[in-house]
Amino acid sequence: MPLTRSARDTALDLISFIDASPSPWHAVASVEQRLKAQGYTPLEEGARWTLAPGARHYVVRGGASLIAFVAGSRPLAEAGFRIVGAHTDSPGLRLKPRPALGGDGLARLAVEVYGGPILATFADRDLGLAGRVVLRGATGPQALLLRIGRPVLRLPNLAIHMNREVNESGLKFDKQTELPLMLGLLGKDDDAEAGFRSLLADAAQVAPADLLSWELAAYDVQPGSLWGADEEFIASRQLDNLASCHAALTALAATQGPAATCVAALFDHEEVGSESAAGAGGSFVTDVLARIGLALGLDEEDRRRALAQSFFVSADMAHAYHPNFPAAFEPGHKVRVNGGPVIKSNANQRYATEAATAARFMAACQQAGVPFPAVRASRQPGLRQHHRPHRRGSPRHRQRRCRLADVGHAQRPRKRRRAGSCLHDRGPGCLLRELNDDPTRRTPMGIDPLPLDADTIRALSGVTTATLTTVLLKKGLRNVWIRRSRPLHAAAPQRLVGRAFTLRFVPAREDLATPASWGSPISTRAAIEAMPAGCIAVVDAMGVADAGIFGDILCSRMKKRGVAALVTDGVVRDVGGVMGTGLPVWCNGVAAPPSVAGLTFVGWQEPIGCGGVAVFPNDVVVADADGAVLIPAALLADVIAESVEQERFEGWIMAEVAAGVPLPGLYPPNEEARARYAAWVARQT
After folding, report:
1. How far are the Cα atoms of 275, 345, 389, 549 from residue 349, in angstroms, in the given order?
2. For the whole model, what pTM was predicted?
3. Is 161 helix (H, G, I), strand (E, B) or coil?
4. What pLDDT does residue 335 have?
5. Which listed residue, 48, 79, 254, 519, has the most CB atoms within 10 A of its CB?
6. Which of 3-17, 244-258, 376-390, 580-594 has maximum average pLDDT?
7. How far is the C-alpha of 189 from the C-alpha of 209, rounded, in Å?
């Protein structure tokens, strides 16, 4: 089954994420790097937090657990939290505190089994070392990530001549005597511990005496890959559970202007019970949620109201049906790869899913266009009764006092050094839908529209789109001016500001693009009825210039509903009537044929590409005589502050030019010009 480009890109990004994350500490470092690139800033647990709606932050505990969040626009007590939880650790082999073993001319490293790996899968593999070391520093102990990415360790297997029963009885290792990993040869006067410390010191670029302690694991240095006839599967270490971490992170990155406060909680120590201070059974997420509430002004009563309105999706991997071992699975509960997310349920509450929370997650899948299976009602989804599941969701559910669903991604097999999974399960899509969900306000499709406050409209109404593009360019955003969208009216229109309400067309398909489709529940007519007053309708018409997307009747209805403007890279029809409605329109021209002559309408309030610009629902659009400019919702506060100041500064420059001041030294300003401007500002205030 060939992959779509989108699925392949997601799979390759997942492989890149896992390859960069050979330990839980490296995983958190990888997540931090991605979050910072998306505008998230770190918070320290020892500092006082100050938050505002739309704020994007993250906090790290213990180096291997991280919680990231974006503060919602609606009051927290009413909208609650939308939380996705996953874990950063994976089963494997961890070095003991004093691992070096010598004897028989060989240096070996003693290991402990972490979690429940399939030990046989580590045999005869190229293994490196990764984790963190703690060093002696000038101001105290300092932790440092360490990764030895070349094969330095191996777990050699016995030849079949010495283990004749291996194919019948399976490969087994005594955990104390047969698991030490081979490190190298020892000379007559060599010391195994000194050699091991030297290896670590060289990798950390410090003196061996500066090594105080370490938390290190053996890991497979083979990079992840795509496999299968059409490369439709992925093989990689640590799919359990970095795949869910990646899905949660991807969903959070795509969450724009949410009503509820959205949280991605990535915990360490799930494989060994979750009960550490940084684990899911500890206080980390409880502490962070409580502090978010305090920073947003909630008292204890409102904090409990917020938890009652919250929803927690606990995302982990799931055991996929293995056709070579059918006896291990319940016939009526087979979990298949490429069958959509798995919803985990257990009558003895080993999972926290309830009928209501399962149904809610199914609805999120359906709205995101992701296939979903029936609820798995067994001790562990798809497995026979003698298999005992971990208690994952229940501790989180008890402590957080919010509704919870345990879900998973099908993997075959789990708990091994290098596992496989199908690429078509679109986990980020349903998690994104759940993060953006607000049960108090629903629209037929897509993300709920948000209002824009009067102060924001007032501030941006005084800022030109030319100034906005300059300010956004300084922030690294070059692609914000919507191409092929000009004012329809000859006279320069009033500058308009509003939240983007998005609509999307695709190329016409004759069985769908018919006049009868105008009466469909998914139609431009239905979309207009979902538009709130004050929004700007932003329509992706793919630049098609020979089919008018809206005419006078639709524009009249939009005007009646209080829509602020229409912005599109397409064209309108009935131009005289459209202009007569008084609805401000930015478009690519006019054409007589109706939309179905060249386009099929497919939905609203979803991410679109209009005029070559990525537009997410509830981004802010400013439109004037120069065209329309998009401001990402997450950057709104910063852009307003800088744009207002830029306008004031340029107004002063214009006055200086009018007074005869030459441009050199004035624009851009030198020190003398800046001083004169500062004095002018002081006089104004």
Report:
1. 18, 8, 10, 53
2. 0.63
3. helix
4. 75
5. 79
6. 580-594
7. 20
